[in-house]
Specification:
heterodimer, A: 268 residues, TIM Barrel, five-stranded parallel sheet, three-stranded parallel sheet, 10 helices, B: Ubiquitin-like (UB roll)
Chain lengths: 268, 70
């Protein structure tokens, strides 16, 4: 009996191989226990995390989350969430590298607080400087082809276009743009943000995207653990379908069962 | 005056430190629990440099720790 993991070809990012094509955010879960069980159920390649000022009594929440990350034993992908300038993003990345002891960084450079749309004009500069500083940069970006190309030009070995604005759960709002990206760029692409349903994840994987990164769709489900599993299954199915090569859609009906030898054919 | 106390911001809260205070002094004053990382005036300061990084008046210090993220 094959497992889902055996249906997934390894994902390679910056020369590093991952057995899963699902990346999972760690925010907004009902409890740390539910988060941990969601991680165990979905077996993600990476877990996203962030850095904030300690609040409350002696940073207990931070300590608790730190211990959870160590227990989960999944690679951490720190983000630069909330950064609005290139320097803020670079400094946050440097701080994350020291705390999490990793060169991975999910580069978020926010240009608009209402839509959380990336600052597309300054994103390539931030990515370039981080890559020069030795980071493995996974930039959160829109689905704009030229922007993604510029990110590749400055050294990004993967890009993370959104499906829809963060936390909306709308699914791919511009399929044409995403499919164009897939056709035009050869680097690994991870659809990040805006996925709400496993079918959304399956869809983009069927289009040939290499992985998905999601958070809210799992965390805010009524049963996050079950939903984490559903997303893992959907990513696996979509990737397997892409590798299988889908049939071409036809305008006219084609019988599946052979016509030759049909009983009672033309007897009347 | 050289012995005028320093006024610094640690995570947006006003604090007073003596002249010659270092980032290590600010970290001790904040009472932050590890792990954390530090920046002064939007520039990252590696952990090993805390005791060597002399603070100036009106420095803005950020001390941040791991938290959940998407």
């Amino acid at each position: 009996m094959t497992t889902h993991a055996s249906n997934i070809a390894p994902l390679t990012l910056y020369g590093e191989t991952f057995q899963s094509r699902l990346m999972l955010g760690t925010s907004r879960y009902p409890s740390p226990s539910v988060l941990l069980q969601a991680i165990e159920r979905s077996q993600p390649a990476m877990l996203t995390a962030s850095l904030r000022r300690q609040t409350g009594s002696g940073g207990e929440a931070s300590q608790s989350f730190w211990n959870l990350l160590r227990e989960a034993q999944v690679p951490v992908l720190p983000n630069t969430a909330g950064c609005h300038s290139v320097q803020e993003a670079i400094t946050t990345a440097e701080m994350a590298r020291e705390v999490f002891e990793t060169d991975w960084i999910k580069l978020e450079l926010i240009g608009d607080d209402y839509t959380l749309q990336p600052d597309t004009l300054n994103l390539p500069e931030a990515a370039s400087r981080l890559i020069q500083a030795g980071f493995k940069v996974l930039p959160y970006t829109t689905d704009d082809l030229v922007l993604c190309q510029r990110l590749v030009d400055v050294g990004c070995q993967a890009v993370m276009p959104w499906a829809a604005p963060i936390g909306t759960g709308k699914g791919p709002i511009n399929p044409h743009a995403l499919r164009t990206l897939r056709e035009r760029l050869d680097v690994p692409m991870i659809v990040d943000a805006g996925l709400g349903l496993p079918s959304h994840a399956c869809q983009v994987m069927e289009w040939g995207f290499d992985a998905v990164l999601l958070n809210t769709a799992v965390a805010l489900a009524q049963d996050p653990i079950r939903m984490a599993g559903a997303f893992a299954d959907a990513v696996s199915a979509g990737h397997a379908a892409y590798r299988s090569g889908a049939m071409q859609a036809q305008d006219s009906a084609q019988p599946s069962t052979p016509v030759l030898g049909t009983p009672f054919w033309h007897q009347t | 005056m050289s012995d005028t106390p320093l006024q610094v911001l640690i995570n947006q809260s006003q604090h007073t430190l003596p002249q010659g205070a270092t980032l290590a002094d600010a970290v001790a004053l904040a009472g932050i629990q590890p792990p954390f990382a530090a920046a002064v005036n939007l520039q990252f300061v590696p952990r090993g440099q805390y005791a060597l990084h002399v603070l100036c008046n009106h420095d803005k210090i950020e001390l941040i720790s791991p938290i959940t993220g998407g």
